[in-house]
Write a structure and sequence with these properties.
The complex is a heterodimer of chains A (about 110) and B (about 110). Chain A has about 110 residues and is an all-beta fold. Chain A has no helices and twelve strands. In chain A, strands 2, 5, 6, 10, 11 and 12 form a six-stranded mixed β-sheet that branches. The relative contact order of chain A is 0.34. Helix content of chain B is about 0%, strand content about 50%. In chain B, strands 2, 4, 5, 6, 9, 10 and 11 form a seven-stranded mixed β-sheet that branches. The chains are: A mainly beta (about 110), B mainly beta (about 110). At the A-B interface, strand 5, strand 6 and strand 11 of A face strand 5, strand 9 and strand 10 of B.
């Protein structure tokens, strides 16, 4: 069985501030991990993914995430928030043949 | 760039009516997923196909929902009869392989049952 927990359903930051969105997973086998972004009334767009190898992965729009096996975490960060980053972010795990999503975190960016 | 196509984008239907959604995955993608996303929540898997075969439909309410992918390409998800609680975004996604690859999502169908 696999599951994903995203801590904080809403995160608010000021423009230019650090963005940190938290994701913890559980999996009985080595997982592949993903972060997706969703804008209102749109589908999900892949930000980045971890498969194997380097544990720090870089994605689009300046986002990156670090896989920490000991902490079963895959937190998403961006050094400086932009207004256009306001959206819903979903962490997902694939540890077999199923892609399972967390409940999502809504990121709000204040001017 | 190849995309997952879904139609319609929006659908309003009355309770107890039938409704259907269509999805055309990226060419060559063997795996196709249907997810339901209730407002403010993460997507929940309804059904997963590998080519034309159902891999997982454990969360599909089979008394009213059905899904098919007859030729292993495009897919249809049907609800009959629709209930108020079915109001949600229905997302289709596809991926190259069943395991360990990212899914590419369509724009979704926003269903409102009145």
């Amino acid at each position: 069985a696999q599951s994903v927990t995203q801590l904080g359903s809403h995160v608010s930051v000021s423009e230019g501030a650090l963005v940190l969105l938290r994701c913890n997973y559980s999996s009985s086998v080595p997982p592949y991990l993903f972060w997706y972004v969703q804008y209102p009334n749109q589908g999900l767009q892949l930000l980045l993914k971890y498969t194997t190898g380097a544990t720090l992965v870089k994605g689009i729009n300046g986002f990156e995430a670090e896989f920490k096996k000991s902490e079963t975490s895959f937190h998403l960060t961006k050094p400086s928030a932009h207004m256009s980053d306001a959206a819903e972010y979903f962490c997902a795990v694939n540890a077999g043949n199923m892609l399972t999503f967390g409940g999502g975190t809504r990121l709000m960016v204040k001017p | 760039e190849a995309e997952v196509a879904q139609s319609p984008r929006y659908k309003i239907t009355e309770k107890s009516q039938a409704v259907a959604f269509w999805c055309d995955p990226i060419s060559g993608h063997a795996t196709l997923y249907w997810y339901r996303q209730i407002l403010g929540q993460g997507p929940e898997l309804l059904v997963q196909f590998q080519d034309e075969s159902v891999v997982d439909d454990s969360q599909l309410p089979k008394d009213r929902f059905s899904a098919e992918r007859l030729k292993g390409v495009d897919s249809t998800l049907k609800i009959q009869p629709a209930e108020l609680g079915d109001s949600a975004m229905y997302l289709c996604a596809s991926s190259l392989y069943e395991r360990y690859t990212e899914a590419f999502f369509g724009q979704g169908t926003r269903l409102t049952v009145v």
